[in-house]
Design goal:
- The chain is mainly α.
- It folds into 2 domains: 1-31; 44-211.
- It is built from 6 helices and no strands.
- The protein has helices at 2-64, 69-91, 93-119, 122-146, 152-174, 178-206.
- The longest helix is centred in the first third of the chain and has 63 residues, at 2-64.
- The protein is elongated and about 55 Å long.
Length: 213
């Protein structure tokens, strides 16, 4: 009888230990998956925060005619390569380079908008803004084709909103309406984080195997 009880006790211990090990492994995998998604989210947010921060720095420097304008523009353009590189692990080198190229066009057109606004040349400003808007739609279309979790119209709306808020910064500074300028940046910053999170969520949904731990 004692041997039977001992055997049962040992058997139960083995089951408990085995279940504990399996539970621990499952939790470890879940933690790793959560960490991978969190790393992607924080990294994507940093890239798009750089995008909006250096865009603002450029607006300030260009409108004030500061000597660091070209250096800020160079750093801003480098940010577009960084964003392109961030999507290469999921969509390949060609797609990453294409996204970077579209984003560089976005920045170069932005410099035209700022220059025309500063000079008060309405016709040139209207033309630049039209080109800027079209580029935003091109970026949205490109991204939507890459990931079904990124609805084209949603991305178009978000990117057009980004252009609107950035324009608000330019107009606010030109009018010396500092409150409006600051509000445009603050609103744009929050909006850009939402955009970054939209990209992250879409990637995690599209590539679940990369986030299993």
């Amino acid at each position: 009888m004692k041997k039977l009880i001992l055997c049962l006790a040992v058997g139960l211990s083995v089951i408990v230990i085995g279940n504990t090990a399996l539970t621990g492994a499952a939790l470890s995998a879940e933690t790793a998956a959560t960490n991978a998604a969190a790393d992607l989210r924080s990294g994507m947010r940093k890239l798009w925060e750089d995008h909006i921060t250096y865009t603002r720095n450029y607006i300030i420097s260009a409108l004030a005619g500061l000597p660091d304008t070209d250096s800020v523009a160079k750093r801003l353009l480098a940010n577009q390569d960084d964003i392109g590189n961030a999507v290469k692990p999921y969509y390949g080198d060609e797609a990453g380079q294409k996204l970077a190229a579209l984003l560089k066009d976005h920045i170069l057109i932005a410099t035209e908008v700022v220059k025309a606004a500063k000079a008060g040349k309405k016709n040139e400003l209207d033309a630049a803004q039209k080109k800027w808007s079209a580029n935003g739609d091109d970026i949205a279309v490109f991204l939507a084709k890459a990931n079904p979790n990124w609805p084209e119209q949603t991305l178009k709306d978000m990117l057009q909103k980004h252009l609107q808020l950035t324009t608000g910064e330019v107009v606010g500074r030109l009018k010396k309406d500092w409150a409006s300028d600051i509000k445009s940046y603050d609103d744009g910053h929050v909006h850009m984080l939402m955009f970054a999170d939209t990209l992250t969520d879409g990637i995690v949904k599209q590539f679940p195997d990369k986030f299993k731990g």
